[in-house]
TrEMBL record:
Signal peptide: none annotated. It is a multi-pass membrane protein. The chain crosses the membrane at residues 12-29, 35-52, 97-118, 125-144, 156-176, 219-240, 260-277, 317-335. Pfam families: Cons_hypoth698. InterPro entries: UPF0324_pro (IPR018383), UPF0324_YeiH-like (IPR004630). It is found in: Cell membrane. Its main location: membrane. This is YeiH family protein. It comes from Heminiphilus faecis. The keyword Lipoprotein does not apply. Keywords: Cell membrane, Membrane, Transmembrane, Transmembrane helix. Belongs to the UPF0324 family.
Amino acid sequence: MLSRKRSSMLHGILLIGLFSCAAFYIGDAQFFREISFSPMIIGIILGMLYANSLRNHLPETWVPGIQFCSKKILRLGIILYGFRLTFQDVLNVGTAGILVDVIIVVVTIIGGVFVGRLLKMDKDIALLTSIGSGICGAAAVLGAESTIQTKPYKTAVAVATVVIFGTISMFIYPIAYRAGILQLSPDEMGIFAGSTLHEVAHTVGAGNAMGTEISNVAIIVKMIRVMLLVPVLLVLGYWVAMRAKKGDGSAQKGKVDIPWFAIGFLVVIGFNSFNLLPQPVVDCINYIDTFLLTMAMVALGAETSIDKFKKAGPKPFVLAFILYVWLLGGGYLLSKYLAPMCL
């Protein structure tokens, strides 16, 4: 019986693995590479297509394998994501980038939760959307989802919002900068792009379109923003525990569940800072990590039907738009006036 259960679970994992391979193949096409659509984004789209077509025609015994990908493999992917970062990155960008990043992240998350309450929208979706907008898009949403343990469709809705607005920005920033609309120096523009663009892929795409000088600063500032995911998840874990305790008054229920994968993420960054591994090995790990995160995205998409998007309604996109306006306006002012004081 146990062997049959494991076999069925393996079928679910292999299914997600096949979809992930397809996402990598599609993502390698010239069109998707030019618009910086990562395999992760393509993966969640494929997962949603599956959820709304073949989902009801496959054995339910495969579901545990799909859920394994959206939980366990996701956490491993978040930990290995640390190989993209080093603490030297923080030192290279200096106080200006760190300060702007911290303000952007704190105001976006707290402000997003507050606006979500005003809109009377689902608390989990508001939180995930705010964290995705404030930190690093889909990866941040996935990390937060692992901490609060919410329903997959809520995660998919949040990911959809950050992908839409992040993609728009990736095209707007280079055009606005080259047209002279954004009166920023190269360093200031790098800080602006790195502190406000949603996805790492969006930052790389927009940065490359504006030149190496801007791109280098933008990517480092973005990586510092990614590092802020660790303290955010620790605070989030404490908040989830306190909310549970308040809900039923149980001390055991209110025990703080530390997101150990976030600690693992930080440890990996520390290890990577010593530059002990050859660059080809690190590149290989990053490639594997992207595949693992793509599997998690496919699995989340596989649990998300159109009906669940309808259930969420337009409010998540309204919230994401409000946060987008803040990122544009607030990020510009911080990069224009605060950053030069620290450079």
